[in-house]
Design brief:
The chain is α/β, with parallel strands linked by helices. The protein is built from three helices and six strands. 34% of the residues lie in helices and 37% in strands. A five-stranded mixed β-barrel has the order 2-3-4-6-5. Helix 2 crosses helix 3. It starts with a helix and ends with a strand.
């Protein structure tokens, strides 16, 4: 009887340890999404996106947050890896940009990470340029 109880405890502990390892490595450290290969769920203009966030932030979060979206607007500010569209959509790029984009119209695809109330802008992460219209 004592051996059976010991074997049951050991098997249970091994199953719990296996489940813990799977959760730790399989769930917490899963691969990052490849935004470049994903199709955008929504295409919109920068001003339209901001208007939706200003009218109802909770609804907009449910529509856009952590989703791949495409936003079109005029580049009003740029650095090595950041472009701001129409002074209201902040786009952080995966790679540094080589060409100058200031005052050109862009369609940018990226993952929406939400509305920043402090800077009053919508933020996109892992961005790539979809189209450039001069």
């Amino acid at each position: 009887m004592k051996r059976k109880k010991t074997a049951t405890i050991i098997v249970t502990l091994l199953l719990l340890a296996s489940a813990g390892i799977y959760f730790y490595y399989g769930f917490l450290f899963k691969e990052a999404r490849n935004i470049e290969s994903e199709k955008p769920t929504v295409s919109t203009s920068a001003t339209n996106l901001m208007n939706e966030y200003n009218s109802n932030q909770e609804k907009s979060d449910s529509l856009y947050l952590n989703k791949t979206i495409e936003v079109t607007g005029k580049v009003t500010k740029e650095t090595d890896s950041v472009v701001v569209l129409d002074s209201i959509v902040f786009c952080l790029f995966i790679k540094k940009k080589r060409n100058k984009l200031l005052n050109s119209r862009l369609s940018v695809k990226g993952k929406c990470i939400g509305y920043d109330e402090l800077f009053q802008e919508v933020k996109l992460d892992q961005c790539i340029i979809n189209k450039q219209n001069n």
